[in-house]
């Protein structure tokens, strides 16, 4: 079975085509600037030359047509016809309390995704556009929605409720939802496989740290707690997001700077985090370089970033009543040797010692703690697209489609 995985943004469309029999990626690519002048299409078929195109694409339907044409193209294609695409899996950011697992797209599921738009106004409408485009172009091909929030729905009310009037939870669904769930799920089960352990026997803290970042405490496959909350703004310091913040700061700044709610939201989501603290960049590589050159603000940004990760690891070890493994994934987690070192060197209280040589790794599965460490520390590359393809494959099989 071949599964096409789509990740639709407001003006972009990422895609990968998987052969689920071999679990190989047949092709992948990205369409950018949808709805703008000169859309850019980058197509990378496995074993063939990359192909780049530039043309105007007005909407996601037109973008999907280009993608499908490239997949069956005589030179750049990897399949002979669209009939060889057996299912489509969509990344959908928010499933609220409606979905605790991935779901076959039906009219009811589509309406539920639409209902969740109020909780993810920037993401769910774009995800929905991808589903609509497929429905028009490939009406007989089954589609599956894979939700970023679904894995976290195993949290208890103790973890997901905020201490504000309960009526706001009942009326608006204000609670902790958590995000990056597809990544945390993949990394947890991949870690169990890598360590040769049964998932139900493992307590793991997964650290998805990149430009967007979150940490999740997982006990036997059940999420106990996660750092992102009602929105992806809560928790860790990120590239441009502030993370945890005293809520009284918001009205203080709004009053003193004469900011609207929309302007304040922009400050917190786009102008804070690493870029806000350093005044240099949201990219950790730039922060590390500036800090090494003696820039005080960059050094502060680095220290605040890593300290917040440490705090969550400590808190989640307590929440789990012990931990078997701490796992680093995503852009910074997989690739930043110095950031991992800075964090792991302060985990001595867990009986962890960093293996300096093993830590010199980028984008590979590796244990980076010493053999005598009581808790294992690993680097585990995430693969959200594969997880989406896997869920899609399993759901389509389950429904005998």
TrEMBL record:
Its main location: cytoplasm. GO terms for biological process: acetate metabolic process; acetyl-CoA biosynthetic process. It is found in: Cytoplasm. It is an enzyme of class 2 (transferase). ATP binds at residues 14, 208-212, 283-285, 331-335. Keywords: ATP-binding, Cytoplasm, Kinase, Magnesium, Metal-binding, Nucleotide-binding, Transferase. It catalyses: acetate + ATP = acetyl phosphate + ADP. Mg(2+) binds at residues 7, 384. Mg(2+). Can also accept Mn(2+). Substrate binds at residue 91. Its cofactor is Mg(2+); Mn(2+). GO terms for cellular component: cytoplasm. Belongs to the acetokinase family. Catalyzes the formation of acetyl phosphate from acetate and ATP. Can also catalyze the reverse reaction. This is Acetate kinase. It comes from Haliovirga abyssi.
């Amino acid at each position: 079975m071949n599964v096409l995985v789509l990740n639709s943004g407001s003006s972009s469309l990422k895609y990968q085509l998987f052969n689920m029999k071999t679990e190989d990626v047949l092709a992948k690519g990205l369409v950018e600037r949808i709805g703008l002048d000169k859309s850019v299409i980058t197509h990378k078929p496995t074993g063939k030359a990359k192909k780049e195109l530039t043309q105007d694409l007005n909407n996601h339907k037109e973008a999907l047509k280009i993608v499908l044409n490239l997949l069956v193209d005589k030179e750049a294609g990897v399949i002979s016809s669209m009939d060889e695409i057996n299912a489509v899996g969509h990344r959908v950011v928010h499933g609220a309390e409606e979905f605790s697992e991935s779901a076959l797209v039906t009219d009811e599921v589509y309406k539920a995704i639409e209902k969740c738009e109020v909780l993810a106004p920037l993401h769910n409408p774009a995800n929905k556009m991808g589903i609509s485009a497929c429905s028009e172009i490939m009406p007989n091909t089954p589609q599956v929605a894979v939700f970023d929030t679904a894995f976290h729905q195993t949290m208890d009310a103790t973890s997901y409720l905020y201490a504000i009037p309960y009526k706001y939870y009942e009326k608006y669904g204000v609670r902790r939802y958590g995000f990056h769930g597809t990544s945390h799920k993949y990394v947890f089960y991949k870690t169990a496989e890598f360590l040769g352990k049964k998932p139900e026997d493992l307590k793991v803290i997964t650290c998805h740290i990149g430009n967007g970042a979150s940490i999740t405490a997982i006990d036997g496959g059940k999420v106990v707690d996660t750092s992102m909350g009602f929105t992806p703004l809560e928790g860790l310091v990120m590239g441009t997001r502030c993370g945890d913040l005293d809520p009284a700061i918001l009205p203080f700044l709004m009053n003193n700077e004469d900011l609207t709610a929309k302007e304040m939201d922009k400050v917190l989501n786009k102008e804070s985090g690493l870029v806000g603290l350093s005044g240099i960049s949201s990219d950790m590589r730039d922060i590390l370089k500036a800090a090494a050159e003696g820039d005080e603000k960059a050094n502060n940004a680095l220290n605040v970033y890593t300290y917040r990760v440490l705090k969550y690891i400590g808190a989640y070890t307590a929440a789990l009543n012990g931990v078997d493994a701490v796992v680093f994934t995503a852009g910074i987690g997989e690739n930043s040797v110095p950031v991992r070192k800075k964090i792991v060197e302060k985990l001595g209280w867990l009986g962890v010692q960093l293996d300096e040589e093993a830590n010199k790794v980028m984008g590979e599965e590796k244990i980076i703690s010493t053999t005598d460490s009581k808790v294992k520390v690993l680097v585990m590359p995430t693969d959200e697209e594969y997880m989406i393809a896997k869920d899609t494959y399993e759901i389509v099989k389950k429904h005998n489609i």
